[in-house]
Amino acid sequence: MKLTDSKIWLWGLFLSCPLGEEVSDCPIKSIRNKSVKGKFDFIENLPHEEIDKLLQIHSRCLQRREN
């Protein structure tokens, strides 16, 4: 896997929500239940556009919940 900053950020989100309790409609929620290999395979096959989309969703959620 070629590591990029985006993949590293997304990998961290795959491990846990930075705010502790994830929201019920979090698109990353189901990925967190995968094995390490499952997460690795998922991120390896995810197009860059989808990685950016998930990071944008996370950023909006984080801003909303912190305010």
Question: What would a concise description of this structure say?
Answer:
With 67 residues, this protein is mostly helical. It has a domain at 7-13 and 32-67. Helix content is 66%, strand content 0%.
Quickly list its features:
0% strand; globular; 67 residues; mainly alpha
Question: What order do the helices and strands come in, and which of them pair?
Answer:
Layout: H1 5-15, H2 29-32, H3 36-45, H4 48-66
Main β-sheet description: none
Number of helices in the DSSP assignment:
4
Q: Identify the overall geometry.
A: globular
**Beta-strand residue fraction:** under 5%
Q: In whole angstroms, how far apart are the ends?
A: 36 Å
Order of helices and strands: HHHH
Overall strand count: 0
Structural class by SSE content? mainly alpha
Uncertain stretches of 5 or more adjacent residues:
none
* Helix coverage percent: 55-70%
Radius of gyration: 12 Å
The overall pLDDT, averaged over residues, is: 91
What does this structure look like?
This protein has helices at residues 5-15, 29-32, 36-45, 48-66. The chain is mainly alpha-helical and 67 residues long. The chain has a domain at 7-13 and 32-67. Helix 1 (5-15) packs across helix 4 (48-66). The longest helix is centred in the last third of the chain and has 19 residues, at 48-66. The mean pLDDT is 91.
